[in-house]
């Protein structure tokens, strides 16, 4: 039995004269959380949209959910949930009213049952009568995810879903994603947060339209011959400035009171 949710090879996409995705190939297993990393404009979102049948590649081949991404795009769209970074909602409607309205827009059957199920699964039942405009960023993202789940998709595409959300809400959001993954739902998520990348089963790193690395975090680090060191305590800012002047240090990051550095050293 084919356990692949996505299998694409040599996808290319141009926007005008810009070659934004170059020979992109990837396989995603069913129930897998796959993170997409890279600078702005690296081709992350475009690559995911092509894999999900939301836009047509210029060349290449592939399937999503067993369907051809060139000829069966409309069928694929009915099976996926797409959560954009900035979810549009109706502020003067409650959470429940927003979800019911969205269900009506898409002509879903058994709308009330679907909304009840989404409210329960995303921990929104206690707040279902709260106005959307009164919600914090974390609760808005929960509502957005609930809206994506109304038609019971088997594949989710989340475009920087936790941007601007506080750390506690981000952790809770990712706990929900892993619960969905445990049910066999595949999830593609673009992010700039390294701690979120570590929560993914696998990650793909893109730059200038090319896939530079993919796999588990451990396998990527091992393949690049990188050494990661951690330290904590006082004087981290001074230590960072000193380390950044060393030729073999690739990156330094200060996170609260923890300090992470990635020396670009050859192993002996």
UniProtKB/TrEMBL annotation:
Annotated ABC transporter domain residues: 6-233
UniProt xrefs under Gene3D superfamilies: P-loop containing nucleotide triphosphate hydrolases
Domain of life: Bacteria
InterPro entries given in the database record: AAA+_ATPase, ABC_transporter-like_ATP-bd, ABC_transporter-like_CS, P-loop_NTPase
GO molecular function: ATP binding; ATP hydrolysis activity
Stored Pfam families: ABC_tran
Keywords: ATP-binding, Nucleotide-binding
Matches recorded under SMART domains: AAA
Protein name: Putative ABC-type multidrug transport system ATPase component
Organism: Klebsiella pneumoniae
């Amino acid at each position: 039995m084919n356990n692949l949710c996505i299998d694409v090879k040599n996808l290319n996409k141009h926007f005008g004269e810009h070659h934004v995705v170059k020979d992109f190939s990837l396989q995603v297993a069913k129930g897998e959380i796959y993170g997409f990393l890279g600078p702005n404009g690296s081709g992350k979102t475009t690559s995911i949209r092509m894999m999900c049948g939301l836009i047509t590649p210029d060349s290449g081949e592939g399937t999503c959910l067993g369907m051809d991404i060139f000829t069966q795009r409309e069928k694929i769209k009915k099976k996926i949930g797409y959560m954009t970074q900035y979810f549009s909602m109706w502020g003067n409607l409650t959470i429940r009213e927003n979800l019911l309205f969205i269900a009506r827009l898409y002509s879903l059957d058994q709308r009330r049952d679907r909304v009840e199920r989404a409210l329960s699964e995303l921990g929104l039942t206690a707040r279902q009568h709260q106005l959307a405009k009164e919600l914090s960023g974390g609760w808005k993202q929960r509502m957005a995810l609930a809206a994506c789940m109304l038609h019971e998709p088997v594949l989710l595409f989340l475009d920087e879903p936790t941007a601007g959300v506080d750390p506690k809400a981000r952790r809770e959001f990712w706990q929900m994603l892993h619960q969905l993954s445990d049910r066999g739902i595949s999830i593609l998520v673009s992010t700039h947060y390294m701690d979120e990348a570590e929560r993914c089963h696998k990650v793909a790193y893109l730059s200038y339209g090319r896939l530079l690395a993919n796999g588990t975090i451990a396998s990527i680090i091992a393949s690049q011959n990188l050494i990661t060191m951690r330290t904590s305590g006082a004087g981290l800012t001074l230590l960072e400035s000193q380390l950044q002047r060393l030729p073999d240090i690739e990156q330094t990051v200060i996170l609260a009171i923890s300090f992470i550095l990635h020396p670009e050293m050859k192993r002996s």
